[in-house]
C-alpha cells in the first residue's frame, strides 16, 4: 500500500511540475511577469484612447458582463496603470494613474532588506513624483515601487522603479 501511495505522489508531483511550467509559459506569452497568480486576472483590450487627454483615460472591451466593477486595479505587463472609473455592459473606462487630479497613491519602495513608504502625488515629465518618504536616505536608483494596499489598490502591485532622487525644501 505504501509503495502504491509513493507512486501516486510521484505522479502528482510530476503533474504539479507540469502545471507550474504551463503557468510560467502562459505568463511569458502574455508578458505578465509582474502579475501575481493570487489576483483574479481578466484580460482585456484597449479599444479607445482620447488623443486630447492621452494621459487621463482609456476604454477597454470588458464591462459588467465580465464581472468588472468600479475601482478595480488595471495592470499591464509593466504593472499598475490605473483603476476602473465607469463600467458599462461590455466596456469600461479606466482612469490612468498618470492623471494629475489628486490621485495620491500609497506606495512602498523595496530596498535590500525592507520597505520605505511614501505617496505618489503627481506625474510630471514622464515620471511619478513620490513625497512623504519615511526614510529617503535608504532609497536608491532602481529600487522597485509597489502599492501598499492602503486605499483603492491591492498590495504588492508593481508601479515602477526609482529613476531619480531629489530632495525638496522639506527633505
Summarize the structure.
This protein has 171 residues and is of the alpha+beta class. It contains 1 helix and 10 strands, in the order H-E-E-E-E-E-E-E-E-E-E. A hairpin with a 4-residue loop joins strand 4 and strand 5.
The poorly predicted ranges are: none
The largest sheet, given as strand count, sense and whether it forms a barrel, is:
5 strands, antiparallel
Strand order of the largest sheet: 1-2-5-4-3
Shape label: flat
Query: Pairing-aware structural class of the strands and helices?
Result: alpha+beta
Let me know the number of strands. 10
Please give the share of residues in helix: 10-25%
The mean pLDDT is 86
N-to-C order of helices and strands:
HEEEEEEEEEE
Count of helical segments?
A: 1
Distance between the termini: 68 Å
Task: Please tell me how large the radius of gyration is.
Answer: 20 Å
Determine the strand fraction and express it as a percent band: 25-35%
Describe the 3D structure.
The chain has one helix spanning 2-30; strands spanning 46-49, 57-60, 73-76, 79-87, 92-96, 105-110, 115-124, 127-131, 144-147, 158-161. It has 171 residues and is α+β, with helices and mostly antiparallel strands. A hairpin with a 7-residue loop joins strand 1 and strand 2 (57-60). The protein has a five-stranded antiparallel beta sheet, with no helix packed on it. Strands 8-7-6-9-10 form a five-stranded antiparallel beta sheet, with no helix packed on it. The chain starts with a helix and ends in a 10-residue tail after the last strand. The mean pLDDT is 86.
